Amino acid sequence: MLDHATDVHGDGETSVVVADINADMLAEGRKRARASRHGAGARLAFVEANAQDLRAAGMADASFDLYTVAFGIRNFTDPAPALREAFRVLKPGGVFACLEFSKISAPLPLLRTLYTSWNFAVIPLLGQLVAGDRDSYRYLAESIERFPDQRTFGDMIKAAGFVVPRSGPAWEDLSGGIVAIHKGIKPLE
Ligand SMILES: C[S@@+](CC[C@H](N)C(=O)[O-])C[C@H]1O[C@@H](n2cnc3c(N)ncnc32)[C@H](O)[C@@H]1O
User: Fold this and answer.
1) How many CB atoms sit inside 10 A of residue 51's CB?
2) How far is C-alpha 109 from the geometric centre of its chain's CA atoms?
């Protein structure tokens, strides 16, 4: 994101706060960031935080322009308070953008069946063979299955106070809906 801000928009000021509840994940992120051109600079901070209570991590109301979460919200114990927190910390006009596993679109029922079977049979097996960890990959399949479909998740985003596009789809499906991008905007006051 900082590369994009810098190289595409000539923006040398935007800063990014990376938040995760897991200190080990943050340490890994920090390690990777150190190897990047932004790693040692003031534009990148790593904060241990529960997305369901960002106030506890000192994140003030209306303090961010963009809140983005990728393959994360599915793992939160309860996404609804996390969406409300995203709304709180964004400035009016700020953007919520979420990339997450979703549901294969309706005209593709055979693909949906194959995909579910693949997730529950093949992915845990590969996890066992490659990482020696079947359970984590079984959890991955279960969490994908449990996460709400695009419409339901879109309604949750609206319930948190965001506005979503009125014309056209309120989300963007990738690979037939295996993954979807949802966006919401905090209304101007
Ligand atoms: C599958 S990883 C994705 C990490 C990263 N977004 C990526 O794409 O590489 C999910 C992350 O969500 C974090 N997580 C789970 N519950 C959380 C919560 N309540 N608040 C903040 N982070 C959370 C986990 O610690 C984990 O690092």
Assistant:
1) 23
2) 26
Closest alpha carbon to 140 in 178, 167, 85 = 178
Q: CA 164, CA 77: separation in Å to the nearest integer?
A: 24
> Is residue 80 very low, low, confident or very high in pLDDT (cuts 50, 70, 90)?
very high
The residues near 24 (Cβ < 8 Å, ≥ 6 apart) are: none
Cβ 46 under 6 angstroms from ligand 1:
no
* 72 Cβ below 6 A of ligand 1: yes
Measure 55 CA to ligand 1 centroid, in angstroms.
Answer: 18
**Among 3.40.50.2000, 3.40.50.150, 3.40.50.2300, 3.40.50.460, what is the CATH number of 2-104+147-185?**
3.40.50.150
Task: Give the pairing type, strands 171-174 and 16-20.
Answer: unpaired
The answer to whether residue 175 scores a pLDDT higher than 80 is yes
- Supply the residue whose CA is at minimum distance from atom 12 of ligand 1: 72
